[in-house]
Amino acid sequence: MPTTTTSRALVGVVLMAHVFLCTAYVGGDGFSVEFIHRDSVMSPYRDPSLSAHARVLEATLRAAALSRSYARADAPSADCAVSELTSRPFEYLMAVNVGTPPTRMLAIADTGSDLVWLNCSNGAGDPGLAAARHAHAHAPAPAPAPVSAPPPGVQFNSANSTMFGLVSCGTAACRALPDASCADSKCRYLYSYGDGSQTSGLLSTETFTFANDQGTRSGDRTMRVANVNFGCSTTMIGSFIGDGLVGLGGGDLSLVNQLGADTSLGRRFSYCLVPYSINASSVLNFGPRAAVTEPGAATTPLIPSEVKAYYTVDLRSVKIGNKTLAAPQQSTVIVDSGTTLTYLAKELVDPLVKELTRRVKLPRVPSPEELLPLCFDVSGAREGQVAAMIPDVTLELGGGAAVTLKTENTFLEVQEGTLCLAVVVPSGQFPPMSIIGNIAQQNMHVGYDLDKGTVTFAAADCAAAPSPSPSPSGSLYI
């Protein structure tokens, strides 16, 4: 029977959220959690044998290998229908506390998809989950997918929680999935990605808790949100890391929309991404704390997208100094924290490379792995000298917003002495679609307000941003 899957790909943007936090602040102005890059010192997926430059190159290779395909998946199997989803390299994680009592899990945080799902146990304590796993075991095998080998993860055992529930077919939450199916009158899903990765299980509800230090300090304030819809996944196949995924996209099932519907926080969140070179975690904010108030903040309206999860804005032109490169007619760009590189149309990248080549007085060198369109030899440059030699690049967006990209937003040192442009043309399976990736968003406070329908950008020192910290004691139940 046809099953579902919703749109993720994220372009884009790997964020999550139920109850999570390595560290968190909860108060009347909202709450904040740590936003952990997979290669940071706080991540269990960091490879300590790699140098800083090697980690940057690995991130670039992931972007090339798992870049979004935006292609429709293969024909549906006899067991389920597959809707349009895309692959992506998952770059950011956040801790999640789910259940009563809570189980702490480390999940992918994704601004480019909607569904929140967690790795559930084998379902021995719940006949419905056990049936879902049994049915999947007899379904046709999916196409091969890249498989990582992360450390053993945490599984959520629904039998240990007093508040766990299964969602029935025909409910609004079940209808929010593109192609939901029924399993013993319960809402079953299959979420597939363009690289062949899949997750499947039953749509469920649980209590998510936001608290400092995982809510273990009796004096710290906690915020509990009941009846959060999430996928209790019994099968994961492919390139996933972590214990699940928190969708922060624009669709109905995303954490952002659910918090907006069930709390007074509104449908808004923001993050400030620390540069790859700094060993510190970034910050993810919800509610009033997500307001972007730094000087020079630029706001652009969100525009409708074929994929509801994507945060899409109008790209008018790209400017370098006094040189303006007009974007193709009706050009849109997706803002996504889960994509490493920035992808722009060939009509923009080719003249951008030409203009940078003319302006930057450094020797050109080949790109490692032939991944990037323009590389310079900076081995002879003094510290601080390179940034002064590379001009700013400004993205001119709808509504008159202008977002200035500094050297750290447009170039990566992928190996010692080799600096490469982190802006490329979508390749292979890409359609003519553009993405502002996380390199371009480093040291920016980026705020999404779904109630107002806007995205706001402001330059910021993200390493100096306030870290999530304890709040007054007490509890808030929603």
Describe the structure.
The chain is of the alpha+beta class and 478 residues long. The protein has two domains: 24-288 and 467-477, Cathepsin D, subunit A, domain 1 (Beta Barrel); 292-462, Acid Proteases (Cathepsin D, subunit A, domain 1, Beta Barrel). Helix content is 13%, strand content 31%. It has seven helices and 28 strands. It has helices at 52-65, 127-137, 172-175, 255-262, 346-359, 385-389, 407-410, and strands at 24-27, 30-37, 92-98, 103-110, 117-119, 165-166, 181-183, 186-192, 198-211, 222-237, 244-247, 268-272, 282-286, 298-301, 312-320, 323-326, 332-335, 342-343, 375-377, 393-397, 402-405, 411-415, 418-421, 423-424, 434-436, 444-449, 454-459, 475-477. The chain has a 17-stranded mixed sheet that branches. Strands 15, 16, 17, 20, 21 and 25 form a six-stranded mixed sheet that branches. The chain has a three-stranded antiparallel sheet with strand order 19-23-22. β7 (181-183) and β8 form a beta hairpin. It comes from Hordeum vulgare subsp. vulgare (Domesticated barley). This is Peptidase A1 domain-containing protein. Residues 1-24 form the signal peptide. Pfam families: TAXi_C, TAXi_N. Residues 133-152 are annotated as: Disordered.
Topology:
Elements: E1 24-27, E2 30-37, H1 52-65, E3 92-98, E4 103-110, E5 117-119, H2 127-137, E6 165-166, H3 172-175, E7 181-183, E8 186-192, E9 198-211, E10 222-237, E11 244-247, H4 255-262, E12 268-272, E13 282-286, E14 298-301, E15 312-320, E16 323-326, E17 332-335, E18 342-343, H5 346-359, E19 375-377, H6 385-389, E20 393-397, E21 402-405, H7 407-410, E22 411-415, E23 418-421, E24 423-424, E25 434-436, E26 444-449, E27 454-459, E28 475-477
Parallel strand pairs: 4-11, 5-10, 10-28, 17-25, 18-24
Antiparallel strand pairs: 1-2, 2-3, 2-13, 3-4, 5-11, 6-9, 7-8, 8-9, 9-10, 12-13, 12-26, 14-27, 15-16, 15-17, 15-20, 19-23, 20-21, 22-23, 26-27
